[in-house]
Write a structure and sequence with these properties.
The protein is α+β, with helices and mostly antiparallel strands. The chain is built from 8 helices and 4 strands. α6 crosses α7. The longest helix is centred in the middle third of the chain and has 27 residues. The two termini are 31 Å apart.
């Protein structure tokens, strides 16, 4: 295990929040570096691919949020138990990206007009709801209550941060019917170290 971790991302939850949750759950010390938008043009050429987040582990750089999430998870026993379950986790990670893609049009950081965002929600929700239904069905079929296998893994934290994002852009009402997703969200939220983190983390728009 590396001795020094530094996670660099904007002052947002965004693509880094599930990584922060993994660090917290694994009791791994790390430096949470928040980049202001005004600082980004200067920092961008120094990043691996001109993107955030990236991780520094003992000075070595690693980019792409889910690659970082899997790397950190391997340090704290948050990987699924088998190759098949890991493939299922990867499958769901890509599904969450598919669900998020149409929501770019109602992301308040991209679209500042609140009335326009609200007008777009019904059509976007109609597009993503069948995929959210699939997530619900996957959870309903797993007696453990976790997304994959019979223990918590990194994909559950990606689910948690993705759900926070979906609630931020759609509101809570569309999720009222997803009883298994609500139960998993609540179970993660009540993990003691996660609960502490959530009450002390920086408040951001997304």
């Amino acid at each position: 295990m590396a001795k020094n971790y530094k996670l660099i991302y904007f002052n947002l939850r965004g693509k880094a929040e599930h990584i922060r949750l993994i660090f917290v759950h694994g009791n791994i010390q790390y430096e949470d570096v928040r980049v202001e938008f005004s600082e980004w043009p200067t920092l961008k050429p120094k990043t691996p691919f001109g993107q955030l987040p990236y991780l520094e582990a003992d000075g070595k750089q690693l980019a792409q949020s889910n690659a970082i999430a899997r790397f950190v998870s391997k340090q704290c026993n948050l990987m699924p138990s088998s190759d098949w379950e890991q493939a299922q986790a990867d499958e769901l990670a890509e599904l969450f990206d598919d669900i998020k893609e149409p929501t770019r049009a109602i992301n308040p950081l991209r679209e500042k007009d609140e009335a326009k965002r609200k007008s777009l929600i019904p059509d976007i929700l109609a597009t993503v709801s069948p995929l959210l239904d699939k997530v619900e069905a996957r959870l309903a079929a797993n007696p453990s209550g976790w997304l994959v296998g019979n223990k918590i893994s990194w994909i559950d934290f990606l689910f948690f941060s993705s759900t926070e994002y979906f609630i931020a852009v759609f509101g809570k009402e569309p999720f009222a019917k997803y009883t298994h997703q609500k139960a998993l969200f609540k179970k993660i939220k009540e993990i003691p170290q996660i609960a502490t983190y959530l009450t002390t983390r920086k408040e951001t728009i997304l």
